[in-house]
């Protein structure tokens, strides 16, 4: 057997390699165990079967604490749902708003949300504090195919307040040129004691705010904006809703500034500025021979600029029911096409057949309506049903002049019992004989 001499330095070198290899293997093993642990933890975070966060008890539910990123790219829908569930289940120490649980949308972040239904009833009054930006998915291809008709829905919630200095961005540009624009909106269904204040909404794909079968709605200092050419972007639409106050807000859009549908009672609109769009409307009512009833509506101290209509009541032929106790007071018109209009022959397609029944319109008063109109249409248009004349239409301090340099137009009346309490401009001498 042949022996080779082995030096002490060589042995030390080999021992060093063995130690380094062993440490490397141990580090590799620990590293993979750590990654496995992190992957399992991430799986728990993302899995709907294992809620990753426990509802805290401090009363403020920041969506970032529930996994929301807020970078305007990632989908934060699940985080909002979990934050809402916690806030809704939380119970305040009293019924005062100062102690209500708050779902916080923090300033400086942009959160993308798919269709989400915020459902009550909740344990106590609840606040959604919108200081950041809520964003809809960007265009039809980004929307969930199962929920293309809805975006943010609030259902059966009592004492909900949505407020803040933030923005709700509907990103509706890609929807407006489609042949059918679904009702993607902030929709409130069967809610009570609602308060909305301060925040801004822009570029809704369809209606901005819609209220159905709600009771006690207070809207204050809201700013809604969309291009004048954007179709069906009604600012605030209410239907089958009563006890509503809409105050101190600015709405610039492509359709009705405020629209009041059937089943609405005790509605006050005050200090509103409407820009572009179609003005403030009651209706349309009575479509498809349906019953409609609207009563006790007051619109006051407001400005309407560069719109298609000013204050309008519109009904379809063939409907039935009534519109009554409506007051328009202190309204300034600036370059409005139809400042005062009652139209019981409403038909946007111009292909409607004549029908005998109509939604009755009576007890409507216009007081201190002043400003300028575009001469493409008469400044006052009161067109009522042949079988159901409008009754007790009272006008006082109406002064409407053509835009500078344009000729004045006469008022138009058809089948209406009107009464003028003061001299009006233009003169309105078209009332039916009261003995009829």
UniProtKB/TrEMBL annotation:
SUPFAM superfamilies (UniProt xref): Pectin lyase-like
One of the GO biological process terms: cell wall organization
InterPro entries: Glyco_hydro_28, PbH1, Pectin_lyas_fold, Pectin_lyase_fold/virulence
Signal peptide: 1-24
Keywords: Cell wall, Cell wall biogenesis/degradation, Glycosidase, Hydrolase, Secreted, Signal
Subcellular location: Secreted, Cell wall
Active site (record annotation): 278
Molecular function as annotated in GO: polygalacturonase activity
Family: Belongs to the glycosyl hydrolase 28 family.
Classification via PANTHER family: PTHR31375
Name of this protein: Polygalacturonase
């Amino acid at each position: 057997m042949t022996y080779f001499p082995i030096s002490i330095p060589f042995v030390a070198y080999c021992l060093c390699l063995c130690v380094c290899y062993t440490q490397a293997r141990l580090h590799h093993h620990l590293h993979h165990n750590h990654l496995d642990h992190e992957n399992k933890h991430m799986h728990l975070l993302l899995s709907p079967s294992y809620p990753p966060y426990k509802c805290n008890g401090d009363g403020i539910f920041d969506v970032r604490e529930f996994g929301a990123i807020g970078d305007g790219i990632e989908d934060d829908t699940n985080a909002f749902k979990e934050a809402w569930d916690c806030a809704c289940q939380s119970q305040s120490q009293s019924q005062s708003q100062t102690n209500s649980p708050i779902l916080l949308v923090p300033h400086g972040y942009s959160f993308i949300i798919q269709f989400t239904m915020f459902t009550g009833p909740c344990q106590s009054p609840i606040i959604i504090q919108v200081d950041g930006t809520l964003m809809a998915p960007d265009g039809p291809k980004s929307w969930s195919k199962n929920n293309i008709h809805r975006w943010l829905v609030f259902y059966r919630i009592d004492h909900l307040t949505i407020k803040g200095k933030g923005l709700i961005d509907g990103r509706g540009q890609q929807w407006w040129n489609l042949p059918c624009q679904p009702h993607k909106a902030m929709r409130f269904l069967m809610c009570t004691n609602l308060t909305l204040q301060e925040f801004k909404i822009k570029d809704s794909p369809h209606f901005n705010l819609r209220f159905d079968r709600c009771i006690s709605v207070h809207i204050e200092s809201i700013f809604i904006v969309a291009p004048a050419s954007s179709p069906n972007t009604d600012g605030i639409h209410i239907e089958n809703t009563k006890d509503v106050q809409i105050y101190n807000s600015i709405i610039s859009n492509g359709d009705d500034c405020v629209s009041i549908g059937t089943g609405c009672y005790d509605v006050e609109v005050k200090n509103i500025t409407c820009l572009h769009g179609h003005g403030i409307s009651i209706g349309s009512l009575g479509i498809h021979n349906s019953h409609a009833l609207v009563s006790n509506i007051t619109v006051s101290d407001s400005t309407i600029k560069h719109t298609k209509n000013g204050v309008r009541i519109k009904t379809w032929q063939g409907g039935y029911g009534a519109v009554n106790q409506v007051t328009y007071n202190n309204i300034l018109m600036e370059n409005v096409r139809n400042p005062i209009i009652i139209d019981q022959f409403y038909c946007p397609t111009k292909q409607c057949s004549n029908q005998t029944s109509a939604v009755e319109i009576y007890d409507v008063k216009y007081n201190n309506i002043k400003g300028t109109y575009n001469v493409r249409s008469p400044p006052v248009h009161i067109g009522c049903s042949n079988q159901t004349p409008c009754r007790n239409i009272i006008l006082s301090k109406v002064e409407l002049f053509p835009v500078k340099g344009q000729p004045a137009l006469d008022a138009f009346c058809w089948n209406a019992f009107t009464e003028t309490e003061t001299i009006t401009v233009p003169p309105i001498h078209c009332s039916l004989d009261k003995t009829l």
